[in-house]
Amino acid sequence: MPEIVVGDRTIAVSEAGWLEDTREWDEEIARAIAEREKVQMTPEHWDVVREARSYYEEYGTSAEPRIFMKIMKEKYGNDRSSQQYIYSLFPYGLIKQGNKIAGLPRPKGCS
CATH for 3-101? Predict the structure, then answer.
């Protein structure tokens, strides 16, 4: 099984790099996943990741893109809530890349 090493921990991930156990997630693991994804984390990236995690922790599921954009708009305004904005941070999108870095479960049909 593939893995990533974070500090003195070895973390199991899927072939595509998704956490096998989402409960292991922390920001150090997020940085390691982001590095593998070639995403340089900025405060704006962290805002997206934290909002995605917050939604997941509250509802037990990942936010659909439209719902997520509404959450971002309410909290951060129009400039930081569009699909284009999310893709500027995560070139493969919220579902495929942002949620992976956030340590959320891999959606069905997502590689």
Answer: 1.10.10.370
